[in-house]
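Entry 12.
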Amino acid sequence: MATIPRCGCSTNPSPEYYAFWQEPHMCTLTTLRPDGTPHVVPVGVTYDLEAGLARVITRKSSAKVTNISTAQSARVAVCQVYWGRWATMEGIALVRTDPELIADAVARYGERYGGTPAPGPERAVIEIELDRAIGQVSTT
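Predicted 3D structure (tokens):
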């Protein structure tokens, strides 16, 4: 299992862990509702190793955006599973609406998943500043 400490999170994951996050698997994003219960939804996630960020493109009106926007400190988790391999990354999420950040996130999504989502005026990006990662990504 890989653990990413708060400081230096962009340099600590193993090459296998990072490679697993480049494969085009669907993921889940877990946010917390105001009553503290988990809200888990399927999403596409991109992992920016150099910046120590995970990104999710979404709509401004989505429940996940509402959950993040209303929290004082929005701790979230993204997870992906493929047979016996799995990886979870955690961190603090912020909702971004800057057009340049959205365009960058959409391009990264296209690189990972091989397509570009339909444009929409409601688009936002959830940026997750990663500080913890666990998983089992070895194929042996």
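Annotation: Residues 86 and 136 are 5 Å apart (CA to CA). The mean pLDDT is 90.
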